[in-house]
Amino acid sequence: xxxxxxxxxxxLINIFGSEARIAKAFGVxxxxxxxxxxxxxxxxxxxxxxxxxxxxxPTTYQRDMKGLRLVLEKPTTNNEVTTNDQTIHLQAA
Length: 93
What we know:
Layout: H1 3-16, H2 19-26, H3 40-48, H4 86-92
């Protein structure tokens, strides 16, 4: 068993409260079997969520880092809305 995966499972239980709620949140039938290994797609979704303090590690899933172009830093929440439309910037000035 991978201790990092156990930590993710425990984290999900703490956040969602039960296996049934975890399953509902991720659109799966059962989350009970995740005690051994949380599915990689769920780990990636957890990494992308600002509400779940988890950072995806490709080696947990035996992924070769050479072929992946992932930003492994946890995304931060930023309430500022940005745009690349220069006309909006000029009108605001």
